[in-house]
Amino acid sequence: MNSIITDFGQLLVCIRHDRGMIQAELAQAAHVHTSHISNFEQSKRMCGIRVATRLADALHLKDKERVEFMSAAASTTKRKYLTSDPLSAENPLVKLIALRCQGNGLDLKQVVNAVPIMTQDKHQIRVMTSSGEVFTVEIKIIK
What we know:
434 Repressor (Amino-terminal Domain), 6 helices
């Protein structure tokens, strides 16, 4: 991607074309109906965080591209954050992310994506905000 595109539909088209994919291929890889891809690209449908994550995975987006993509997707929804109340979420990973982000002074309503990074030596979560910032939060596991 040469320039910054903030419209999610235009961005999706651009990336899909860069990857040499047709709508049906992307839809199959992301486990959504082809009409959803068409509607996203024409800005006729909002794209939630879960579907945006599956699309980003199917498009093999990494780092800055992924942040830009997830931020654009979040801008299509009425809520521009990961979950409405992450501290009371049922998913323990979401709770952990929320607590760590809050402890590091991040506004939870700006978090658009969080990706766990597990290695033998470290457990981290890469947090992406709607403003395009990326933070890495280290997780200590006590046995």
